Amino acid sequence: MSNVTVFTAPKPFSDPHINIIQRNAIRSWKALSAETEVILIGDDPGIKETAAELGVMHIPDVEKNELGTPLVNSIFKLARDAASHELLIYLNADIILSPDCLSVIDQILQLNMDFLLVGRRWDVDITEELEFKNGWSDDLQKLLATTGKLRTVTAMDYFIFPRHLFKEIPPFAIGRGGWDNWMIFNAENQPWPVIDITPSLSIIHQNHDYGHLPNGTAHYDLEESHHNVVLAGGMRSSYDLLDVSLVYKDGVICRKKLSLPRLFRKLERVVMPVEQTGWRWQLTRGFRRLGRKFS
Length: 295
Known about the structure:
Elements lengths: L3 E5 L7 H15 L6 E5 L5 H8 L2 E3 L12 H11 L4 E5 L3 E2 L3 H10 L6 E3 L2 E4 L11 H12 L1 E2 L7 E5 L16 H10 L5 E3 L6 E4 L16 H10 L13 E4 L2 E4 L4 H12 L6 H16 L2
Parallel strand pairs: 1-2, 1-4, 2-3, 6-10, 7-11, 10-12
Antiparallel strand pairs: 4-9, 5-11, 7-8, 12-13
């Protein structure tokens, strides 16, 4: 079974619900295997104390932007330098992993190639600390079957890759838009195989509000998100799972079929202008809305 290093930059643990769901996530990562290494990066309130309590590594000295938001390039470098294992998993700190994750990784590693594994997430409401005892993964799968909601192709909360990849990353603000899209764009243009593992792995996102962000709203219209898009090279780099051509399903990597959403996405990329103005930009936005509507 693969040995992996899981790393994240958590939100402050001061909010009671954020505290619960982040602790659930971290404990799920530890439950993957006895060899799984977990690294928490950042110096926000509660990170040091939680790392000590749960017995995981803590690295406080992350670089930040002028607004105090940790930077993605610093997070990834710190994790790479500290990691004991060759396979890295970055995820948001509210994501629960099931042990199935390692079996999927093992099968893809047999191909002996570089790769980036990504996928959609399942949203669930969890308001209490979970017990990670025998059968915990089965209990969560039952919860998914009854109340879970599979999110869209833009909901990318995790990246799995060998540690020698992604050594050059722009100084994106973590937790804001744009940088996750760049990860897929960059990998596709190396080219490293980018593989959508949604059909083979159910990644669980624990729902929460956005009280940790300015005005308590989602990050999409924040100035830091717009700056991330600029750093990424503009909207042309705003890839998502519609741009991923490979899928891992039933133990086999194969090419995705040309669906209606992927067709709209291809048309969007053809007409997309450099500047976000004019009729071509409006046409691009139309194709984007149609593609996401049917995905």
